[in-house]
Amino acid sequence: MTMHTEDQLQEPQAEPKATPAKRPARTAKTAPAGESQPKPKPARKKPQRAQPEPVQESAPEPAAVAELVTAAPEAYDPAPALSAPCSEPCPETCSAAPAAEAAELAEETPLTTAVMPESPVMADSLTHGQRVAAIAATLFQDLAELHGLDDVWGHRLHLAAQLHDIGFAEGRKGHHKISMRLIEEDLSLNIHEDDRPWVALLARYHRKAWPSRRHARFDALKKSDRKALRKAASLLRIADALDYTHTGVVGNLAVAVKKHKVIIAVQCSGDCSAEMERVIKKGDLFMHVFGRELECVCQEN
Question: How much is the pTM?
Fold first, then answer.
């Protein structure tokens, strides 16, 4: 039997690996004799953009508010009767006047029939809708350069403002969704079929959730239509807030568009603190869509 010593039982040591030879450093190419060496190109520096200084817009003085409101019309025109298809003759592009037959039908068929029961709650909702439609028309006109929507959308906004609360026919809870369903299903409502889905969606978004692509109807729209609907819905929410107490306390109305802010100046016949507070709360969609702060100031008569 062969005996091994302790040194012989140790694991064999690995042979050291040979280190690769280092590559010689690259040398700059030299030009042939008689030719000049090329000049190295200077490193380009990216120009730094100057950061604009934040502009602080001061709140309007009471005198300025009075002047702004006085410059507005004496009072916004009341919304037309529900049987009228438009407040004014529609342009050729307006889908509310597609043919003479539709005009005749509009004269014979009221905007609201059959579905809306006669009750104090429904009467109040429709009267409130008339006031909201008038306020929305003023906002749509004064903010035309900001939202860039055409008269077709103005007509849709007008109809949605009139009908946004008809869901109260089945109760307050979820009435915005009920309003959407009634507008979609009640063919006795004098709404052109091209406008009906848009009016229904605007009524659905007059409160609660913003228009979202998580909602199937909204997600199915084209990008340009989604953008237009958001703009119109933001105006409807503000108009609804300005008659929050359903008392018609808001009178003359004027809008001033600043670089970073939109100021809504109103004259009130009484305490309108609830409306002022509600405008800021429901104006969140407007501020998100247009990237401007929203301020509402009130002057009591």
Answer: 0.65
